[in-house]
Amino acid sequence: MACLSLAFKWFFPACARAAAAATGFAVWLAVATALAAPGDPAGDAAAAAAGSAPVATGRAVRTSGLPIPRFVSLRSTEVNVRTGPGIRYPVEWVFVRKDMPVEITAEFDTWRRIRDWDGSEGWVHQSLLSGRRTVIVVGTVRSLRADPDPRGRVVARVEPGVIGELQRCRPARCEIAFGDHLGWLGREEVWGLYSEERIE
User: Fold this and answer.
1) Residue ranges per domain, the chain?
2) Which residue from 133, 157, 163, 131 is spatially nearest to 144, judged by alpha carbons?
3) What is the CA angle 67-177-80, rounded to 5?
4) Are residues 174 and 193 in contact, defined by beta-carbon separation less than 8 angstroms?
5) pLDDT value of residue 64
6) Whole-model pTM?
7) Distance between CA 118 and CA 9 in Å, rounded?
8) Residues 128 and 112: beta-carbon distance below 8 Å
9) Which 3 state secondary structure label does DSSP give 130?
10) Which of 26, 102, 143, 170 is the most buried (most CB within 10 A)?
């Protein structure tokens, strides 16, 4: 039986060098900090092409027309999260977990305000988000089961913070892929979908 565990979620650019000295990850964090500098578009992908921060005018601002709120996932392993919708706004922190589920709570032009599983919010460029549906395990260690029966055979133990890809959902339980491990968890055991949402 496998036991699946997590990696860390983000780092704060302002604290990166101090953290590096304390943990021994100086080289890695120095590079990551340079990539995530507020004046550098790295971590914002196509955001640089968008130019400066959008300015409110009398005209209507383009939005996607998709439902708000809605769940998506992070497309990149480095995603700058800014205090506002534009590259002129400072980077508040950097997500470093590709495929992590986030909830879009607002849109402004090509920017999206997102919230993660622990309530952290900020703005990212739309190019760094994917429609691929993922979930993150919450609470305690969960038993991934071979079928929708909550008493079914356990195929893996999944720790809080592990990310899986949604396959389909029944009213109470969802089939989720964690790498090579495929099985079922209860909706209440993960974050990244709504209680009545249908996934086929």
Assistant:
1) 9-42+67-132, 135-191
2) 157
3) 55
4) yes
5) 85
6) 0.75
7) 11
8) no
9) strand
10) 102
Q: How confident is the model at residue 3 (pLDDT cuts 50, 70, 90)?
A: low
Q: Residues 6 or more apart from 149 whose CB is under 8 A from it?
A: none
Q: Which long-range contacts (CB under 8 A, 24 or more apart) does 20-23 make?
A: none
The Cα–Cα gap between 120 and 131 comes to: 20
What is the overall mean pLDDT for the chain? Answer: 80
To which residue do tokens 């005018």 refer?
Answer: 57
Q: How distant, in Å, are the alpha carbons of 17, 93, 138, 163 from that of 6?
A: 23, 19, 11, 8
CATH of the domain spanning 135-191: 2.30.30.40
What's the CA gap between 81 and 89, in Å, rounded?
Answer: 10
The whole-angstrom separation of Cα 138 and Cα 113 is 22
Spatial distance between the Cα atoms of 170 and 151, rounded to a whole number of angstroms: 16
For the chain, what is the radius of gyration of the CA atoms?
Answer: 18
- Whether 135-191 and 9-42+67-132 are alike in CATH topology: the answer is yes
- Residue 191 makes CB contacts below 8 A (sequence gap 6+) with 101, 117, 135, 136, 138
